[in-house]
Design goal:
Number of helices: 2
Largest sheet: 3 strands, antiparallel
Oligomer: single chain
Distance between the termini: 61 Å
Strand content: 15-25%
């Protein structure tokens, strides 16, 4: 298992739960890419292990194209073949 990233709170004395991570004396650890990016965006310092630092990429929303409708259904296709 890969080493976890260390998340450091802006308050070095903070002990509690934030975004599902347990902080003790201002520090928590995770290997969840989404949480790492979330904490970075909120101003927390993130220390990545050397081997995984290059593997983490920003999360981007992917656009998906809607499926094209042909106007025919499977049942209609079956009926069309009977008439031929």
């Amino acid at each position: 298992m890969a080493e976890k990233a260390k998340i450091k709170s802006p308050n070095p004395k903070y002990t509690g739960v934030s975004a599902s991570l347990q902080f003790v004396n201002g520090e928590a650890e995770t290997n969840d890419k989404w949480l790492i990016e979330w904490f970075e965006n909120k101003g927390y310092k993130v220390e990545m292990p050397q081997e995984t630092q290059q593997e983490i990429e920003p999360i981007e929303e992917k656009e998906t194209e809607p499926k094209k409708k042909t106007g025919k259904t499977k049942a209609k296709d079956a009926d069309d073949k009977k008439d031929e």
